[in-house]
Predict the 3D structure of the following.
Amino acid sequence: MGNETKYIFVTGGVLSSLGKGLASASIGALLESRGLSVTIQKLDPYINVDPGTMNPFEHGEVFVTDDGTETDLDLGHYERFTHAKLGKDNNYTTGKIYYSVITKEREGKYLGGTVQVIPHITDEIKDSIRKVSTGVDVVIVEIGGTIGDIESLPFLEAIRQFHNDAGKNNVIHIHLTLVPYIKTAGEVKTKPTQHSVKELRSIGIQPDILLCRTDHLLSPEIKKKIAMFCNVDTDAVITAKDVDCIYECPLSFHEEGLDNKIEKLLNIWSRAPRLEAWKTLCHNLKTPDFEVTIAIVGKYVNLTESYKSLNEALTHGGIPNQCRVNLKFVDSETITSETCKVRLQGVDGILVPGGFGSRGIDGKIISAKYARENKIPYFGICLGMQIAVMEFARHVAGLEQANSTEFDPDTPHPVIDLLEKWIDDKSGTIQRRDLHSDKGGTMRLGAYPCVLEKESLVAKAYGTDTISERHRHRYEFNNAYLETLKAAGMTISGIAPSGDLVEIVELPDHPWFLGCQFHPEFKSRPMTPHPLFRSFIAATLEYSGYRKIVKGEDS
Ligand code: GLN
C-alpha cells in the first residue's frame, strides 16, 4: 500500500460490554493477516490519569505493558490478537489529556490565550492519535464508553475533526451496536441501532461500517433495512454473531466480508488474508483430549473481568497440552482450615493470583499450605508468590508470625517488605519509596530482566537462562530472610541481575510449586502460550492422571 497512514475509529452504541475491545483487536488481526502493519489505541473518557488506581471490581483488570504503563484491559486483547507493540501512547484517558494541557498552561505555553475544550483539548487528543501513527499502515482507535455519554464528547469531536485533517480516503468510522432478538415478537429489532447512529450523526460522524452484535444471523432483508435507515452500504452491515470462543471473532468477521470492505473504503491494496493459524487455533481449542480444573483463589472472583489475562493465559497453557482448562473461582474469604478440603476438592491445580490489601489473605495462605502438603501443583503470581513465601516461613522455617508488612507493619518476621531503596535495572538509578509515596504509577512497573537458576523448574520451562517479565507491585522478598528460607528448603530460582531482588521461588521436593514476583499472564499469546502456563497445565494434567474428556460431552 501507499505510505499514507490509514485510520479506523471504533465507537460503540446502545449499551456497554458489547465487545468493542475484542472487535478492535479482531480488526487488527484481520489486517495483519493481509500483511499490513497495525497499531491499536484506546481513548478512555474517565478522569483517572490511568486505571492503576481504579477498583478491579468496577473496571476489571489493569493491564501492564512492557514500558510499565498501567492500561485498560482492552490493551490485553490488542496484544493477544496482534503483534502491535503497545506502550504509554496506546492508552489515553480524559485525565491524561487534561493533565498534559493543564501542565502546559502552567508552564505558560498558551500565554495570552483562553484554554478551552475546543481547540486545546481536542488538539491534544488529535496529537495523541498522531503519536502512534509512525511506521504503521493502519491505526485503529477505539473510543471507550457508549455514544450518548457526556464524557466522550471531546473525543468524538476530536475524531470528527481528525477525519477532515487526515483526508476522507484515509479515515473510516466503524460503529458497534446491538440488534436484539425479541422473543415475543419472534424477530430482531433494528431500532436501537437506528437511534444510536442518529446520535452519532448528530455530532457530525457518519459511520461507514456497522458491526451488529446479535445472537441471530442477520438476513439480507434486515441488513438492507439497517443500511437504508443508517445511510451505509448494505455490505457494510456486518453480523457480529456471538461466538463460542473469542479467537473465532476474526474468522467470523472475515466470513462477513469485513476486511474486504475496510480495504475498499480505505483504498488499500494488500495480499489475500492468511487465516490458517487462526483456524488451527480455534480447531485445537474446540477439540481437546483432556481436561483439568484449576482453582483460582482470589478476591475479585465474582467478576472474571478482573483476571482477564490470567484466564486467557491458562486457556493458552492448555492448547499445547491438548487440554481444556476449567476455572473454578474460589473466594479466599470462604477458605478456612476446616473448609479448605471441601472448597478445593477435585481441583488439579491451585493458583493464587495478584492482589492488594489484607482481605482474604488467611484463606490464600491456607490454600498454599494445602497445595504444598498434598503435592498439588501450585502457581503463585505476584501476591501469590508472596503468600507462598509467608506460608513456607511460618510452617516450614518456623517463623510463626512471618508476614508481609503490607498486612502487618509490626510483624516480627517481615519476610515480604517495602523496599525503600533499590537499584532499577532499567535505568541503573537508585529508586526510593515509602508509605507516603504517591499511590498512582509508583509501583515497580513493567518489564524487568531476571536470571534463572540452572536446572530449576523455571529454567526448564523457559528453556533459557535470562527472561524479561512485567511487574506491578510495591512489596518485595526481604533478603534478610534469604539464607533462613534457603536453609529450610526453598529454592530461589530467579533473581534480578542487579543481584538483590528475588523474582522466583520454588520447592524442589514438590511436583510443581512455583511463585513469581512478576505477572507472566500479560505476555501469553494464543499462538505462543507462555512457558510457565504451559508447564503448569502439564503438571496439573499429570496430577489429574490424564483425565480424558468423554467425547460428546465436550462443549
Ligand atoms: N500487594 C502486593 C504488592 O504490592 C502484590 C501486588 C500484586 O499482586 N500485583 O507487592
User: Anything to note?
Assistant: The mean pLDDT is 93. Residues 354-356, 382-383, 406, 472-475 surround glutamine (CB under 6 Å). The two ends are 42 Å apart (CA to CA). The CA atoms of residues 208 and 225 lie 15 Å apart.
